[in-house]
Amino acid sequence: MSAERAGAPFLVLRDGEGRQRLLRLEGLRLSVGRGEGNDVALPWDSEVSRLHAELECIAGEWTVVDDGLSRNGTYVNGMRISGRARLRDGDTLRIGRTTLGYRRPDAEETQERTVVAGRPVALTDLPPTQRGVLVALARPYKHGEFATPATNQEIAEELHLSVDAVKAHLRSLFQRFGIEQLPQNQKRSRLVAEALQQGMLTTRDL
């Protein structure tokens, strides 16, 4: 890989056809989005905004910036950012459904992955009832990822709550995971996916 041999920072991702791509980071500011005119164009991903975020190099360090440009948010190591986050070698960005790895081969020392706004949320950080709602929502995924989240009625019956109470707890969870702006028919499955991807839930919890 020429970028790695040259010691230049680069992004590694897979395009819409599953092919691995390496994008060398050059210049001081790069736009990221679904539009073909972006420096980092992700036209295959419908969850990416036309202008989604920016990558900016400051004093030799690359940062990712999302000041409300995107609808679905920008995530670094599983945490949604607000504003700017510095990138370190080995960090993972998620923009829409696309995962981009940040590599900086010339990093002089091993660096810990960036944690945005503190450590990732753990299941035990949630209030007990919210925790129960999340587990019940994801329970159908116990036997495989191709499942449908539990309905509000099913959750209510399992936890002996009213349907309105379940809805209120889900709204809080959507906000906590930064997905409240997604279309209603996508929020529930995305919430389960985020919890599983971040390691907040495992099949043993279900």
UniProtKB/TrEMBL annotation:
<dbReference type="Pfam" id="PF00498">
    <property type="entry name" value="FHA"/>
</dbReference>
<dbReference type="InterPro" id="IPR000792">
    <property type="entry name" value="Tscrpt_reg_LuxR_C"/>
</dbReference>
<keyword id="KW-0597">Phosphoprotein</keyword>
<dbReference type="InterPro" id="IPR008984">
    <property type="entry name" value="SMAD_FHA_dom_sf"/>
</dbReference>
<dbReference type="GO" id="GO:0003677">
    <property type="term" value="F:DNA binding"/>
</dbReference>
<dbReference type="InterPro" id="IPR000253">
    <property type="entry name" value="FHA_dom"/>
</dbReference>
<feature type="domain" description="FHA">
    <location>
        <begin position="30"/>
        <end position="81"/>
    </location>
</feature>
<dbReference type="GO" id="GO:0006355">
    <property type="term" value="P:regulation of DNA-templated transcription"/>
</dbReference>
<dbReference type="InterPro" id="IPR016032">
    <property type="entry name" value="Sig_transdc_resp-reg_C-effctor"/>
</dbReference>
<dbReference type="Pfam" id="PF00196">
    <property type="entry name" value="GerE"/>
</dbReference>
<protein>
    <submittedName>
        <fullName>FHA domain-containing protein</fullName>
    </submittedName>
</protein>
<dbReference type="InterPro" id="IPR036388">
    <property type="entry name" value="WH-like_DNA-bd_sf"/>
</dbReference>
